[in-house]
Known about the structure:
The chain is an alpha+beta fold. Helix content is 41%, strand content 9%. The protein is built from eleven helices and four strands. A hairpin with a 6-residue loop joins strand 1 (56-57) and strand 2 (64-68).
Amino acid sequence: MSDTLHVENNIDVEYDFRKDLKNPNDDPDSKSPTLKRYHKLLWSKPLPNGSLLNLTDRDNDRFLYYKADEQEYILSSDSIVHTYSRWKRTKELIEKIPDREIEEFRDIAFTIGGYIIFPANPVNGKQTINQERGTNNLICDRFDLTLECIRRFYNSDDSPLYELLQRYESFFKLFNNFKGYCEFFLLTDLTNNDFTNINFLMPFDGFITYPVPRTVDEYMEYKRKSMEFCANRNKRIKVYQSG
């Protein structure tokens, strides 16, 4: 194997996708070729049912594609570790947090452990998973809450995202069940051993209260748990890619 090929097929779990951006305000989900390549390498693998999730890409296109049973899936990257450091709603809170704490959080959030892929094709002109996660005030881009919605979806239980997830039912069926979904995307550090509960990043009250940290103490605990999840997922990714 040539050095070039080795580099192309190697995943650096410490790589910061901001390095790919020409404009610091750009989004790695749409602008980082390394992130897109890592997704293709990581998730092109056998599904729980034994068939292969064979992801393909097209030149100058942010999306990945998978075709099965005459159905094509359009998939995009989505960040799942959020610092809330650029939200207007958290501006006053973030100003109370030392810059070094925010930068430490952002540094790990921009590694591969902080990303996943979701279907990106709008259904019936409605929002995609990526869009709805960010605009739903009971989720606010929290991935642990999104994962709880996905867990409930597999159990046919209601949640703030149930109708949304129904629109993408065929995608979630690819993984058979919640356990299959979590194991496929290396998310098991956010669940208990039998996949019946989520390890929430903040105390969970059943989707009642606003889910974003409001105090410095809440933020620091959310930061600690989020960084721990991302670091552990990076370790899983490193072990997975090493065979």
